[in-house]
Amino acid sequence: MGAAAGFRSSLTLVRKACATCRECDVRHQALCTAMADEHLHRLEDITSPVLLQPNQALLRQGDPCRKVYSLTSGMLRLFTDLPDGRRQITDFLMPGDYLGLVDDDFHSQSAEAVVASSLCAFPINQMELLMDEFPSLRERLHRMARAALRQAHDSQLMLGRLAPLEKLAGFLLMLDARTNHHPHHGRRLQLAMSRTDIADHLGLTIETVSRCFTRLKAQGLIRLPEAHLVEILHEGRLAEIAGIGLSPEHLRLAAS
Question: What is the 3-state secondary structure (H, E, C) of the chain?
Answer without folding.
Answer: CCCCCCCCCCHHHHHHHCCCHHHCCCCCCCHHHHCCHHHHHHHHCCCEEEEECCCCEEECCCCECCEEEEEEECCEEEEEECCCCCEEEEEEECCCCEECCCCCCECCCEEEECCCEEEEEEEHHHHHHHHHHCHHHHHHHHHHHHHHHHHHHHHHHHHHCCCHHHHHHHHHHHHHHHHCCCCCCCEEEECCCCHHHHHHHHCCCHHHHHHHHHHHHHCCCEEEEECCEEEECCHHHHHHHHCCCCCHHHHHHHHC
